[in-house]
Amino acid sequence: MKLGAIDIAIMGAYFVFVLGIGLALKRYIRTSADYFLSSRSIPAWVAGLAFLSANLGAQEVIGMAASGAKYGLLTSHFYWIGAIPAMVFLGLFMMPFYYGSRARSVPEYLKLRFDEKTRGFNAISFACMTVFSSGISMYAMGLLLNLLLGWDFDVSVWVCGGVVLVYILLGGLTSAIYNEVLQFFLIVLGFLPLVLLGLHDIGGWNGLKAGLEGVATAQGFAPQTWTSAWSTTGAAASNPMGVEWFGIAMGLGFVLSFGYWCTDFLVVQRAMAAESMDAARRAPLIGAVPKMLLPFLVIVPGMIAVASTHAGGHIVLPTRADGALNYDLAVPLMLEQYFPQGMLGLGLTALMASFMSGMAGNVTAFNTVWTFDLYESYIRPGASDRHYLWVGRVATVVGIGLSALAAYVAARFNNIMDLLQLLFAFINAPLFATFLLGMFWKRATPHGAFLGLLAGTLGAALHHGLTLPKGSMPGVKGGWIEVLHSYPSEMAQNFWTAIFAFSICFTATTLISLVTRPREERELVGLVYSLTPRPESTATAWYARPQSLAIVVLGFALVLNIVFW
Amino acid sequence: MGFDIRLPIGALFSILGIMLASYGALSDRAIYAHSLGININLAWGLVLLAFGVSMLALWRRAYSARSREASREQPPS
What we know:
- The complex is a heterodimer.
- By secondary structure, chain A is mainly α.
- Chain A is 71% helix and 1% strand.
- In chain B, 71% of the residues lie in helices and 0% in strands.
- Chain B starts with 5 loop residues before the first helix and ends with a helix.
- The chains are: A mainly alpha, B mainly alpha.
């Protein structure tokens, strides 16, 4: 791929604006609340788009296209059932506690609701996880720019990381949020023409459908498999994901999705920065609307690429050493094929924007959790606000430095990263059970929560150690204790690991809570559903009320599921 | 807090739109063989420009509404 002066100029304009936003916000940062919480002043639509954009990292764009090629429209489950219901639940039922309790972070809510040990466990694992995930996305970005443009890996990593560093250092969370909104529009407007040109080339939606029938039948599946969300999920063997509808609905749609969207501080922090309770509750609901449409932007390119490869069209995915197609190249190849100089600059800028929004999300979540939940709690409590603001800025630098380190570790030792991701999956899987019981059952006790969380994590590890996806060797893929059960695919194993972890945590927390002492009810006002007055929406327009917005969002998601059944 | 984000978004996309559209108007037709013969730079540049300008219009509207409100709250003495 060769860049012209126009491409460089487009990238340059983007960088100027991103840094300019940080610079312009600098003078508004006076206290730690400005830096970490945007002084709770962000309008709902801005918080909502940032909520979505922080999750729309480069891996999402590249990875979802890869899944689109590998599994077709089944990938939409990660959106229509694997995100929307959880986002609605967060907005309607959980934001009142996160926002109303005045907690500054998700771990801090755990401290208010339960006690120190649950917060500590959550804060430490979360801080490590954000550093590693931003490191992995740095690595992916460096690799991609190297492959596409021949740019030096180190230069790409340090330049992109450096830009994120500067704008967060200057403007804190507000800067991250404002840039995420800018990046969101850039991602949409940068990738949309790619989808349109790709569809046009392959003969529109009908041409794509016909092409994908060939892909499906060649692999021994029903012809509609790649263009349908639910119709092939009657049995695990009849779809390429290797999961049946129950595993999808329970594992992905309930445990994994609620565990991520409702408890991950990376996204929740955006809603917590909103200007009012109403705005905080609306933020995830507003984000849900574009979220539903994202499959057309990020999954369809992969579907086009695989259909084109099968039919001998313009896009041909190369084969990897193990004989499978290299699905990760779907988006890069399409950029190269369809975009002339000019648009190429826009497409690459969109790719960099997605990388930066994902990374900034991790970094702002990291510096907040580090400063409030680790430094202020365990290292130096009671210092001045100025001091914590300074610590937050240092944490931003250190966090990005550690991410870069993680990127190099990922480049050298792939297995360590696999292992770490596995570990985080074990820690995360049961988390939603703890929040669910904590928010909706006043009898849940601090000991119950902590021990239940540990039991759930161990349960996840145990389940992983005893099962193996078909065709894998025991080890990092599972079965490292003994292979008692084998799953049709890795995805099926993931979903069931999550289901087991959640159930074990839920049961253990309930049982232990019944035999240990709960906290005084007066301490739990504002933290538990039954002891908190319902938030009344002050909005008069129907679309500004969380409940009516939620109904519209859920209805729309239902329609999409039916249309693409 | 801070400023209205619609201002920089509108400005950036207007600039990008003008850059792409003028490049599209001036560039050699041959480079559009890739994009199926469509002058995508010109077409999409205009889309970006339209988006940028509407963002600026929204910003302008909110801005004048705010300043009207501010002048009503603080009548000149």
